[in-house]
Specification:
The protein contains 3 helices and 8 strands, in the order E-H-E-H-E-E-E-H-E-E-E. It is of the alpha/beta class. The protein has a 4-stranded mixed β-sheet with strand order 1-4-3-2, sandwiched between helices. A hairpin with a 5-residue loop joins strand 7 (128-136) and strand 8. The radius of gyration is 18 Å and the shape is globular.
């Protein structure tokens, strides 16, 4: 049995703005074509009458060739009362390993995102220091930034 992780989907109020945010902050690259999906098959799949989805897939950084993607979509009709919290049931956050957590957090803020909680450093076994922070994209989706440093001994 073959199993392969394919993508994570974000439903955005404005898929183009959210897609540009991830491109600018994390270097994600659009994978053509842009999607414009509708029809009976989509209504059956989603259980939503007259569903219409627009958006695109983004190649995630750090992969060569065949990689998982971040799928940014908008529906013609959306439920917007979905509070995003770090301890909410369901998918909680996307995580990116970065060289400089503070610098990427600053880019997130410059592009209209925000910070959730404090930037922290903590010691792990074997002389490893981890740096973490939770941030939010421009529509409030939670992003974890992490960096791992092995102490030179």
């Amino acid at each position: 049995m073959k199993i392969k992780y394919v993508h994570t989907n974000i439903i955005a109020k404005d898929w183009k703005r959210v897609s540009l945010f991830y491109q600018k902050v994390f270097g994600c690259q659009p994978i053509p074509p842009q999607r414009d999906l509708r029809g009976g098959w989509l209504d059956k799949l989603t259980g939503i009458q007259n569903a219409h989805i627009t958006g695109e897939h983004l190649a995630l950084p750090g992969y060569d060739g065949n990689y998982p993607t971040l799928e940014i979509f908008s529906y013609n009709s959306m439920m917007t009362d979905n509070p995003k919290t770090v301890n909410g049931v369901g998918l909680a956050h996307l995580a990116f390993e970065v060289d400089d957590v503070a610098a990427v957090l600053q880019r997130i803020k410059q592009e209209g995102g925000g910070q959730l909680g404090e930037l922290i450093k903590t010691e792990y076994p074997n002389y490893v220091t981890a740096t973490f922070v939770y941030a939010k994209d421009i529509e409030g989706n939670i992003i974890e930034l992490q960096s791992w440093e092995k102490e030179k001994i």
